[in-house]
Amino acid sequence: MGNYFSLRNGVIENQVVTSLCSWWRFTYSPFPCKRLVITRITMTPSRVRVIAELLRESAALVALIMFATEMDLGGALTITSALRVNKTLTTLDVSYNDIGNTGVEALAGALMDHRTLSVLDLSCTSIGFEGASVLARALRENRALTTLNLSYNTIGPDGVASLAGALRENTTLTDLELNCIAMGSDGAASLSGALMKNTTLTTVRLCDNGIGPRGAAALAAALLANATLTAMSLMYNGIGQEGVLALQGALRENVVLTVMDLTCTERCVAIDRGLRRNQQFHADDKVTARTFSMIVREVHCNRHQAVTLSTLYEPRLWHVVALYAFNTPAARRKCLAILREHIE
Question: pTM for the whole thing?
Answer without folding.
Answer: 0.78
